[in-house]
Amino acid sequence: MGTALVKIKIMPVAPGVDLDKITEDAKKIIKSKKVLNPVFEQQPIAFGLIAVIAGFAWPEENELEDLEQELRTIQDVNSVEVIDLRRAIG
Question: String of b and e for 28-64 (b: at least 16 CB within 10 Å)?
């Protein structure tokens, strides 16, 4: 199988939560899965709510559901959603 490029949106429970802590916890979980090139950014949503967007290369043969479940266990995280999944070419 090949490699997929994945973007996951991690939504906090409320505005004002520590996004750096959420990012650090997400980074530990994602890196433990031995993904390639993880990148994190913050994206304003609405009314002061800011999401953490994680992007990385993921082996296509692996399921993303387990990763999503682990990310949901992070304190102050409301939801986790795959927002983009594409096959890497090259």
Answer: eebeeeebeebebeeeeeeeebbbbbbbbebeeeeee
Nearest-angstrom CA–CA distance, 6 and 76: 22
What is the spatial distance between Cα 83 and Cα 9, in angstroms, rounded to a whole number? Answer: 6
DSSP 50: E
Residue length of the chain:
90
Mean pLDDT, residues 6-29: 96
Domains of the chain: 3-87 (3.30.70.60)
Tokens linked to 69: 């479940």
pTM, two decimal places: 0.91
